[in-house]
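R.M. (postdoc): so does anyone remember the format we settled on? I'll just put the structure tokens first.
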């Protein structure tokens, strides 16, 4: 990719992305907490600026929802950061919640992208293997607005569950509650602007692998629920 094209892609991804902050937490106020709520600003310190061949770059003017009392209740901490490997750009969104209120449910990209003017052209469940032999159930979305296509790979974690739909998310929360636990939750979302999903999915998988592999133990637990 030439430098002019790279700069254009960076501008489109970092400045033009909408609907990035589509996340909350889904928990019940019963039982003991496995993970203490993160203070605001903790995510940016927990995740390194170098993830293998990926280097952090300024996120620019990413569009975010306005601050409100509701958003303060939903989000304990949010991080948006760009990463570049010399040929491609990925935007990482992390949104962590440990809200002690059963009425608060995680907002999923399938709802946020259409609300931001994107159509979802396709959606599929994909597995991301972990070093311990477990898999993360993730979703790959191909979205399109009237100006661009944005490819999205994301997963949501509730405790040690990785729900891929609103229904399975609610079931995960119920299971944790019945077990006497009050789970934390995180949305891990990666995205890139690309016209070809066949090329974007391996790219986003590669970034997710690097992120999990190079994250410190405490940060890896936030991503995968496992130490």
């Amino acid at each position: 990719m030439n430098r002019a094209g790279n700069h254009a892609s960076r501008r489109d991804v970092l400045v033009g992305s909408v609907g990035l902050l589509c996340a909350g937490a889904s928990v019940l106020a019963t039982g003991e907490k496995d993970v203490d709520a993160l203070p605001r600003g903790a995510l940016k310190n927990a995740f390194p600026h170098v993830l293998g061949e990926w280097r952090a770059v300024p996120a620019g003017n990413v569009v975010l929802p306005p601050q409100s009392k509701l958003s303060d209740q939903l989000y304990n901490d949010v991080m948006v950061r760009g990463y570049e490997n010399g040929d491609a750009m990925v935007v990482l969104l992390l949104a962590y919640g440990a809200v002690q209120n059963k009425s608060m449910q995680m907002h999923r990209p399938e709802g946020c992208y259409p609300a931001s003017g994107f159509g979802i052209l396709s959606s599929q469940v994909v597995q991301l293997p972990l070093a311990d032999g477990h898999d993360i159930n993730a979703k790959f979305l191909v979205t399109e607005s009237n100006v661009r296509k944005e490819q999205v790979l994301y997963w949501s974690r509730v405790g040690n569950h990785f729900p891929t739909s609103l229904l399975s998310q609610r079931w995960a929360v119920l299971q944790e509650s019945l077990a006497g636990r009050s789970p934390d939750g995180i949305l891990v979302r990666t995205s890139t602007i690309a016209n070809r999903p066949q090329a974007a999915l391996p790219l986003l998988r590669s970034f997710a692998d690097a992120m999990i592999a190079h994250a410190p133990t405490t940060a890896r637990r936030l991503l995968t629920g496992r130490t």
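R.M.: ...and that's the designed sequence above, right after the tokens. Also worth knowing: The CA atoms of residues 155 and 224 lie 10 Å apart. The chain has one domain: 3-224.
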